[in-house]
Design brief:
Distance between the termini: 22 Å
Strand order of the largest sheet: 3-2-4-5-6-1-7
Number of strands: 7
Order of helices and strands: EHEHEHEHEEHEH
Number of helices: 6
Number of domains: 1
Radius of gyration: 15 Å
Structural class: alpha+beta
Amino acid sequence: MKGMILERNHKYFTNLHLIFGNLNGFHKQFNWLITNCECYPQNEKYFNLFSDWNPVWISGEDLDEMVMSEEFQWVSAVLSGFKKEISKEDVFKYSEPMWDSADLWENPVSIQHPLAEIEIVPWDGALLLFTSKDDKYALLFKEKFPDAQDLEEHNKEIYDNNNPI
């Protein structure tokens, strides 16, 4: 498992249009649970999808349509990617991942939902975390966003300096 962090010094870290647009469409092969979401799409359909703070279950294809149709800011959210064969019912047996969970800053790096393969966390408009059980996705993220840091190294550096987030 590998995680990356893209911080404020990157111009578009909370713009999933740019993030997904650079990652070769990998997200289409998963279903996504979006929880704890604050975002501001102009499209009324997408705005209403997130207006009540309830979790959203969406296919990778529909997620792609949403993020590619409009560039909007994701202030905070957790996007958990699941293999297509995992059912929505099985996913909802577990508690909802939260963007402000202390677990995000623990080593070894982990994904909050036990059935998820990937976790993407726009974190309070300040940074974006990208964690994957399959290192190839995290390495692709690093390749496309070279200023991303290894999350485990980042966490260690913060705690070594007695400066937890």
